[in-house]
């Protein structure tokens, strides 16, 4: 099998059910989801190398599978009447993971900067790319029909990356870096 087809040399690409320009809003949306998936893979590899974040690595690998499903759902030229890969269950499971990561992390009172451990910094990169994927998905949804579960999942996923980044720092013994000009913007948890 050859990796190149030459069919995109004129700026067009195939989507499920047709061909569109490579800068089409649909391609921008699923392409950004694909970019996010690559960063998640990098974060998972670095987390695995730490030897202390096995459960997090398993979550990230599952998220990669779901991001591929999201991209697949976004790639339909005409999504009407399609069988979707994404449903409400993955977003609900993300909420459980978020809650567990928050519970295992120190109280947060101020905004924080990306950093601490390398894993945490990479998870913050995932968070920001995820927010871009969400913006691209919202743009697509304003113009064309999509699977709304994808939009919900990507919205929840950026929260997951924030919570996972803080969890990684806590687990690895690295402090979050507070934004020094931040007021106290979060309430302490009641124990």
Automatic annotation (TrEMBL):
Keywords assigned: ATP-binding, Cobalamin biosynthesis, Nucleotide-binding, Transferase
EC number: 2.5.1.17
Coiled-coil zones: none
Record field: catalytic activity: 2 cob(II)alamin + reduced [electron-transfer flavoprotein] + 2 ATP = 2 adenosylcob(III)alamin + 2 triphosphate + oxidized [electron-transfer flavoprotein] + 3 H(+); 2 cob(II)yrinate a,c diamide + reduced [electron-transfer flavoprotein] + 2 ATP = 2 adenosylcob(III)yrinate a,c-diamide + 2 triphosphate + oxidized [electron-transfer flavoprotein] + 3 H(+)
Pathway(s): Cofactor biosynthesis; adenosylcobalamin biosynthesis; adenosylcobalamin from cob(II)yrinate a,c-diamide: step 2/7
GO-annotated biological processes: cobalamin biosynthetic process
InterPro entries assigned: CblAdoTrfase-like, CblAdoTrfase-like_sf, PduO-typ
All residue ranges annotated as the Cobalamin adenosyltransferase-like domain in the record: 3-168
GO molecular function, one term: ATP binding
Quaternary structure and partners: Homotrimer.
Protein family per UniProt: Belongs to the Cob(I)alamin adenosyltransferase family.
Protein name according to UniProt: Corrinoid adenosyltransferase
Organism: Paenibacillus nasutitermitis
